[in-house]
């Protein structure tokens, strides 16, 4: 895995080496097509309100895990892999940045992947919406780990979705949203196979999980405490490019960087990274054919006594 200080030309070399894997031959086709792009300015302004105008505690009481301990989600099927996506602020239901990434992962393991889009608003009311997202994600991870102990989970997040995933995985004292929504259990944390984030507002340039053309001396607009992802080191890629003012808080007014992930190859690279972490393809035994008139049941073996 490349460190937070590896960017520029080394990213390009790493991208080429990973995407040449034979198992990824169909990935390019799955990643093709135009996607509607969110408005980076709207996302930035909404994210800043998380700290400028924090929500009153009583407004988020319904998501408090201590006051309301029952999970707010139902268990899903026990597939070998569960891919959970958390979309960015204002992204439409269809043609999201993370959709092609999830589809490429599913294509690599036909019949083995359950996909779930995290049910949260992803709107500009981030204090409330992202808190709901964090509670929903934590409950989902914990319930799946209990119901399906052999299932492995892949988490994909973009922009506000990256904030939601990151805060859910982090300790409560390192969160901006969802401080009281509970914690990921030890079993659930162990079940997480890979985490891929794009345009993370809580990006920390010095963390080893960073990947891309960013400056390691520059953080996101809402950086989390360094080392918050230490427990997921080796399982996480936090993608950021140098002109993305969400994950690289600068005075630049250029907005193209935050939507560059749609066509800069990082969708493909994120999918490739996850696919290389999947286990061997499950071999399924071929069912024995049903007896027919043309194909009668086998006769007793030679020499066997027939009663």
From TrEMBL:
The keyword Disulfide bond applies. Transmembrane segments: none annotated. Belongs to the cutinase family. It comes from Leucobacter albus. The keyword Signal applies. Residues 280-307 are annotated as: Disordered. It holds the Pfam family Cutinase. The lineage of its organism: Bacteria, Bacillati, Actinomycetota, Actinomycetes, Micrococcales. This is Cutinase family protein. Keywords: Disulfide bond, Hydrolase, Serine esterase, Signal. Residues 1-28 form the signal peptide.
């Amino acid at each position: 895995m490349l460190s937070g200080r590896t960017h520029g030309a080394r990213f390009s070399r790493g991208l080429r080496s990973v995407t040449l894997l034979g198992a990824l031959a169909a990935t390019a086709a799955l990643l093709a097509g135009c996607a509607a792009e969110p408005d980076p300015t709207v996302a930035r302004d909404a994210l800043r309100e998380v700290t400028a105008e924090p929500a009153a505690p009583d407004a988020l009481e319904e998501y408090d895990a201590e006051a309301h301990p029952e999970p707010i989600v139902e268990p899903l099927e026990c597939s070998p892999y569960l891919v959970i996506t958390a979309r960015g602020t204002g992204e439409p239901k269809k043609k999201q940045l993370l959709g092609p990434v999830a589809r490429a992962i599913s294509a690599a393991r036909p019949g083995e992947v359950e996909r779930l889009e995290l049910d949260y608003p992803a709107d500009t009311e981030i204090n409330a919406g992202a808190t709901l997202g964090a509670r929903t994600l934590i409950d989902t991870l914990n319930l799946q780990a209990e119901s399906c102990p052999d299932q492995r989970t892949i988490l994909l997040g973009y922009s506000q979705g990256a904030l939601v995933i990151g805060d859910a995985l982090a300790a409560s004292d390192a969160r901006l949203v969802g401080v009281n929504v509970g914690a990921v259990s030890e079993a659930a944390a162990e079940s997480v196979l890979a985490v891929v984030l794009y345009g993370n507002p809580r990006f920390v340039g010095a963390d080893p999980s960073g990947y891309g053309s960013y400056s390691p001396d520059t953080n996101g607009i809402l950086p989390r405490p360094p080392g918050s992802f230490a427990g997921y080191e080796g399982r996480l890629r936090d993608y950021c490019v140098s002109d993305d003012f969400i994950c690289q808080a600068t005075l630049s007014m250029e907005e193209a960087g935050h939507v560059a992930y749609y066509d800069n190859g990082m969708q493909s690279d994120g999918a490739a990274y996850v696919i290389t972490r999947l286990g061997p393809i499950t071999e399924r035994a071929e069912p024995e054919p049903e007896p027919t008139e043309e194909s009668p049941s086998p006769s007793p073996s030679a020499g066997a006594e027939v009663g």
